[in-house]
Amino acid sequence: MFKKILIANRGEIALRIIRTCKELGIPTVAVYSEADRDSLHVVFADEAVCIGPASSKESYLKIPSIISAAQVTGADAIHPGYGFLAENSEFSEICQESGIKFIGPSPDMIRRMGDKAFAKDTMRAVGVPVVPGSEGAVADIKIAKRLASEIGYPVMLKASAGGGGKGMRIVHKEENIENAFQTASTEAAAAFGNPELYLEKYILNPRHVEIQIVGDSRGKAYSYGERDCSIQRRHQKLLEEAPCPILTPEVRKKMSDAAILGAESVKYEGAGTIEFLVDKDLNFYFIEMNTRIQVEHPVTEMVQNLDLIKQQILVAAGKEIENKPRKAVGHSFEFRINAEDPENNFRPSPGRIKYLHFPGGFGVRVDSHVYSDYVISPHYDSLIAKLIVWGTDREHAIKRALRAFDEFAIEGVKTTVPYHKMILQNEDFRNNNYDTSFIEKLTAKKLEV
Ligand code: MV4
After folding, report:
1. Which CATH architecture describes the domain 5-103?
2. Best substitution site from 124, 168, 289 to test ligand 1's pocket, by max atoms within 8 Å of Cβ?
């Protein structure tokens, strides 16, 4: 097992990883920027190294500083968390070259799954259902036009190096595809250094359902079930739930088996997420694979009674996975509490927390790094806490979530707590009658005078 693990991250996920390392008896090293001097992950870690000024580019993204911190403290493994360098193949490579175990997939795997067109081709080749569209990237506008007319409008243009909604364009009719192709590839080149686009049939108002996978070091992959992440605002997930309330046992099994097939076909190692779109007839289509632990991993932990960070560390240390998957028990939600003002277009609301009280009680978990008097920095993303609840079924989990939100007190900054309470009281949401257009429709309704 590892002698010492450095956590190359901050905020709630750094705390989350430190907690599991402590329970495993593994000493931890935190890295922090000058703006995070008073952050809890610095306090809870056994050692802490300041790696630079507030800006992420000069600190949490600065590979030489992070590698040096690991070397001077004698850390023999690095956990990247999510965001920052978690899916940076160069970082994974430099860890390998420095003799430090990167707790995640190989550089080659990160690169392959990071090319969304290539990832699709890989999945299609082994029979995982994918969205109908181009084979790989589309070379030019002429081919795009021909393909689109074969598939039928609307179609979607996506950047091969994009993902997570970045570099996507919906094209409703042929007269718009030329302009869309030009602008999307220019944007992709600017944003990702790669202009390549691929084309897909546009799936109308899908659900966004992802499968949690863990691949062991012997090429076997396990599925820990699905999460429904359809409640998104501008591709930012607001809340997630497990299990997905519209899947039948048959579709659930087929989707899980497809995810395992895809992961084993590339001998995937570590925690990964296979993203699908589900249409109104419960057909599912692979769209992307993420090679990191995700923000929403706790809802899977709650219904599987599993520590996913522990599984990641065990696999990276070449040990057998601890828990084999089981049928999900009960129902879980995660609500992302952001320091943003829902009354002001979700504008960030950094500042000092004047008063804070977190909810508790059976089936209530709060993953957060903030505390009373903590100053929320404007330098990083606005996620300040995740409220995770578990109930015996979806209705019970909703009731418990509302009870928990009533206990939630946070003063001094605006947060998305009121927005979550509004969603939980929405009839369509409570009746499980929603898809990825839910927030858009909710916003439109609110704007109606
Ligand atoms: C799609 C889609 C419909 N048709 N692809 C890809 C990245 C992921 N975060 C969202 N993605 C989607 N890909 C095809 N062919 C719908 C989504 C989608 C979505 C798209 C626009 C606005 C919000 C969305 C929320 C979830 C899924």
Report:
1. 3-Layer(aba) Sandwich (3.40)
2. 168
- Report, as an integer, the average pLDDT of 3-16: 98
Tell me what the mean pLDDT of segment 216-239 comes to: 95
- 207 assigned to active site: no
pLDDT of 323 higher than 80: no
Kindly report the number of other CB atoms within 10 A of residue 2's CB atom: 20
Q: Where are the alpha helices (DSSP H) in 126-176?
A: 141-151
Rounded to two decimals, what is the model's pTM? Answer: 0.96
Sign of CA dihedral 194, 200, 205, 206: negative
Distance in Å, CA 9 to ligand 1 centroid: 28
Cβ atoms of 289 and 262 within 8 Å: the answer is yes
Which residue has its alpha carbon closest to ligand 1 atom 9?
164
List the domain boundaries for the chain: 5-103, 132-201, 207-448
Residue 216 one-letter amino acid: D
Confidence at residue 26, expressed as pLDDT on a 0 to 100 scale: 98
- Residue 446: how many other CB atoms lie within 10 Å: 9
User: What residue ranges in 42-176 does DSSP mark as E strands?
Assistant: 47-52, 77-79, 101-102, 155-163, 166-171
Locate 325 and state its tokens.
């998957």
User: Diameter of the chain by CA atoms?
Assistant: 62
pLDDT at 163: 82
How far is residue 161's CA from residue 138's CA, in Å, rounded to a whole number? 13
Active-site option among 292, 336, 365, 400:
292
CB 442 within 8 A of CB 214: no
CATH homologous superfamily for 132-201? ATP-grasp fold, A domain (3.30.1490.20)
Per-residue pLDDT, 447:
72
- Contact between 312 and 26 under an 8 Å Cβ cutoff? The reply is no
Decide whether any atom of ligand 1 lies within 6 Å of the 235 Cβ. Answer: yes
pLDDT score for 372: 96
Tokens, residue 108: 């080659």
Using the mean position of ligand 1's atoms as its centre, give its distance from the Cα of residue 71 in Å.
Answer: 41
Fold classification of 207-448 is: D-amino Acid Aminotransferase; Chain A, domain 1 (3.30.470)
Residues in a beta bridge with 158: 168, 198
Residue linked to tokens 């595809």: 177
- Distance in Å, CA 130 to ligand 1 centroid: 13
Q: What secondary structure does DSSP assign to 166-230, as a single string?
A: EEEEEE-SGGGHHHHHHHHHHHHHHHHS---EEEEEPPSS-EEEEEEEEE-TTS-EEEEEEEEEE
- As a whole number of angstroms, the distance between CA 30 and CA 47 comes to 6
